[in-house]
Amino acid sequence: MEPVGDFDLEYAAALESTAPVRLGSQYGLFVEGEMVEPAAGRLAPTVNPATGEALAEVSVADAADVDRAVAAARTAWEGGWRDLPGAERAKYLYRVARLLQERAREFAVLETMDGGKPIRESRDLDIPLAAAHFFHYAGWADKLDYAFSGRRAAPLGVAAQVIPWNFPLLMAAWKLAPALACGNTAVLKPAPTTPLTALLLAEVLRDAELPPGVVNIITGDDAAGAALVAHPGVDKVAFTGSTEVGRAIAAEMAGTGKRLTLELGGKAANIVFDDAALDQVTEGIVNGIYFNGGQVCCAGSRLLVQETVADTVVGKLQRRMDTLRVGDPLDKNTDIGAINSQAQLDRITELVASGVAEGAELYTPDCVLPERGFFHAPALFTNVSTAHRIAQEEIFGPVLSVLTFRTAEEAVAKANNTPYGLSAGIWTEKGSRILWMADQMQAGVVWANTFNRFDPASPFGGYRESGYGREGGRAGLLPYVELVA
Amino acid sequence: MTDLLAVETPAGAADAVAGVRITPVDAVGLEQRAAALCTRSIKTSSKAAALDLAIRVMDLTTLEGADTPERVEALCTRAHHPDAADWSVPSVAAVCVYPELVPVAAEALANSPVAVASVAGGFPAGLAPLEARLAEVAWAVAAGADEVDIVLNRSAFLSGRYQKAYDEIAGAKQACGSAHLKVILETGELGSYDQIRRASMLAMVAGADFIKTSTGKIGTSATPAVALCMAEAIRDMAEQTGRSVGLKLAGGIRTAKQAWHYLVIVGETLGPGWLTPERFRLGASSLLNDVLMQRAKLRDGRYQRREDYSVD
What H or E segment, with its residue span, contains residue A217? Predict the structure, then answer.
């Protein structure tokens, strides 16, 4: 039945040049405006997940380094940053934003090399959004007195910020921009597998002539992160990462008086009603779960589709999956790049195997994965029950579970049947249903007829086991200020 | 899926169209996807193949009041061998002219693989009396047209008289006999992607062998999002009825880059089965020169002068 053409739409390799990136062989810690060696001299390699090869060696901070970084941040805060007029702080943030734009290509290529995400995403999304975040919060810096009616927004002090590996530079921007705009100083710790763009950001901060110590960037393992958040000199902790670690941090913070925001895991429902625009729904589902290889805390990993169109939607989805291009993340035509690490790939593989073992039906397109590096084909499970592990646990990979529903009430019940509450998607052409559904969703972010859309002006964050606190927009200022009369 | 196409079809055709449903279109999502497809990077060997395909699916078109038999003859010569100096360049799919010039084109193309296409049916507005429009279609076919491009009656369609729009297309299909029927939706006048999708389904159900975007006679012509919208309708039609309808994009396509954006949109939406002149056409007049220039650039490593290419 399928007609036969005589032309093969094969894209020749279209590799992004790595020329703009000048990799060092070893990187120190960024403390008090300088790159310094770690106290104990420990180094660890950071690996290109698309090849499995080490890109550079990066410092592993220990407690002494954390001490030093926190002290530098404290000195910078008390030494002037907290008293700097907002308009002056804004100047630095605008400078950082512009420098990010100027060096966007370099950042995008490095982000892809270190993290494995497709260059299309780092180029079109991560880096432009990171710059946009700095622009947005630069705009707030001199307007804080008007942001919260009748109350003054005072800075907190030193912020300890621990960020994940799925959007390395973007998460750094989400954390640093509001903290600095509000008059705090920061110690940022990037994830062990993706430190390089944060270290390049250190260069940008220096070029922007940000006063030494206002931002300190320490690399290292989980122990370094733990030492940072536990440090008594820290006034505020912001963590983005797994629910497990977030829970431990919350327990440790109790009674310390430190302010805490957590952005943790998710198991978002993407809900499709039968009156929706089904071809755009298909794109939305793909974007929801295969964007960044599904390594997204707000990924639409549970598809809830109304039973009348379930077969149609799954058919369209499978057909679309067949056209997804998995491979070298530096190729401009790659849709799904590398999984961030061997450990993450193992976790995905294990959960996919559990889905098969529990009786769900697996579909993956017939794609050839690269021989080297960490790759996983896009996967789709049908015949999934809400009790299956793949429907319950956050997979953090390109794996979608499809469930069906009959009524809107059933969709709500199934969507909320998760310990998480980060995001949800609703697809329908009926406006009143969007509003009603959004009201019922126990999720911090609800997208209507779109998914995984981010904007610096739009608050992002979850509740329940997805954490608390908001990033983005005016709400994103609150975690970094004390409101005083 | 809310909308069952509300037209009565002749007995016998009923089975083929009974299941045709129309799904709504989300404009934001559609345009986003179209834009994403236009960022596909076509390099080296893919570019060479894409340029040749762009020529092979081209309907070389001249639809001016000032057209002369000499001009059409020159166009036909180019259609057969687009580059007089390089016969490895493939022929285009068809030459598209007004009915009066069909005999000229038919004679000039008699010993070539190039088809003769004629606009007819009161092109470009489609507001002549139905009898006259159908007679024009039959006349063009009798004069040697292998393919006929008619326009959708937008007046009937936009006012909700779908049955009338349907009957007219079905009538034209009958008047065509064995010639291929392309139905121009004039998407720039339809007002929304939902309407474009509905018109696409209507034209396909009524018997169109191809659905086509534009006449080229109004300001808004083919766009990537419109092409994607129609390709998605064609995909639904094929899935629901098993009929493979072709897509012709026309109007404002002037550069090789635009051409391969459309190749990508069609290829990724409908599959490789549509990347053939049987099911895919680009209607254009000035596109050919740009494609030839890009082709020569790929071959020689440098651009040639515009003056080296025929203006006809």
Answer: strand A215-217
pLDDT band per the 50, 70, 90 thresholds, residue A358 = very high
Residues A243 and A385 in one domain: no
Closest chain A CA to residue B25: A277
Q: Which member of B149, B167, B236, B290 is catalytic?
A: B149
Residue B309's pLDDT band (boundaries 50, 70, 90)? confident
User: Could you give the residue ranges of the DSSP H alpha helices within A122-262?
Assistant: 127-141, 144-147, 168-181, 196-207, 222-230, 243-253
CB contact under 8 A, B272 and A276: no
Report pLDDT for B10. 56
Residues A246 and A351 occupy one common structural domain: no
Q: What angle do CA A230, A234, A239 make, to 5 degrees?
A: 65
What pLDDT sits at residue A356? 97
Quote the ipTM score: 0.92
How many Å apart are CA B84 and CA B74, to the nearest integer? 12
pLDDT band at B11 (very low <50, low <70, confident <90, very high): very low
Task: Report the catalytic residues of A.
Answer: 263, 297
Full residue range of the structural domain in which residue B181 is found: 3-308
CATH of the domain at A402: 3.40.309.10
Q: CA-CA distance, A133 to A148, in Å (whole number)?
A: 20
Residue-level pLDDT at B3:
56
Structure tokens belonging to residue A297? 């805390």
Shared domain check, A251 and A120: yes
Measured between beta carbons, the chain A residues lying within 8 angstroms of B278 are 3, 5
CA A246 – CA A232 distance, rounded (Å): 18
> Which of A3, A9, A333 has its CB closest to that of B279?
A3
Residues of B in contact with A315 (CB under 8 A): 239
Q: Which CATH number is A239's domain given?
A: 3.40.605.10
Report CB contact under 8 Å: A429, B53. Answer: no
- Reported as a pLDDT band with limits 50, 70 and 90, residue B4 is low
Residue A429 and residue B45: Cβ atoms within 8 Å?
no
The pLDDT value given to residue A441: 97
Q: Dihedral sign, CA of A93, A99, A101, A105?
A: negative
Report the pLDDT averaged over residues A204-223: 98
Please report whether residue A457 resides in a domain. Answer: no
Per-residue pLDDT tens for B146-159? 999 999 999 999 99
Does residue A50 share a domain with residue A72?
yes
pLDDT band at A5 (very low <50, low <70, confident <90, very high): low
Most B CBs within 10 Å: which of A4, A15, A279, as the mutation test of the B interface? A279
With respect to residue A198, please indicate whether it lies within any of the assigned structural domains. Answer: yes
Residues spanned by the domain of A42: 26-264+464-484
Mean pLDDT of B221-232: 97
Is A324 part of a structural domain of the chain? yes
| Closest CA of chain A from B32, distance in Å | 9
Nearest CB to A449; choose among B29, B232, B273: B29
Interchain CB contact of A123 with B (< 8 Å): no
Average pLDDT of span A193-207: 98
- Cβ(B297)–Cβ(B309) below 8 Å: no
Interchain CB contact of A1 with B (< 8 Å) = yes
Instruction: Write the pLDDT tens digit of every residue in B27-62.
Output: 999 999 999 999 999 888 889 999 999 999 999 999
B217 is catalytic: no
Q: In this structure, is residue A409 part of a structural domain?
A: yes
Helix axes A310-322, A278-290, angle to 10 degrees: 60
What letters, b where the CB count within 10 A reaches 16 and e where it falls short, cover A391-427? bbbbbbbbbbbbbbbeebeebbebbbbbebbbbbbbb
Domains of chain A: total: 2
Say whether residue A482 is in contact with chain B using an 8 A CB cutoff. Answer: no
Q: How many domains does chain B have?
A: 1
Cβ contact, residue pair B1, A309, below 8 Å? yes
Nearest to B273 among A2, A11, A279 (CB): A2
State chain A's mean pLDDT as an integer.
Answer: 96
Q: What percent of chain B has pLDDT over 70?
A: 94
What are the φ and ψ backbone dihedral angles of B52, each rounded to 5 degrees? -65, -40
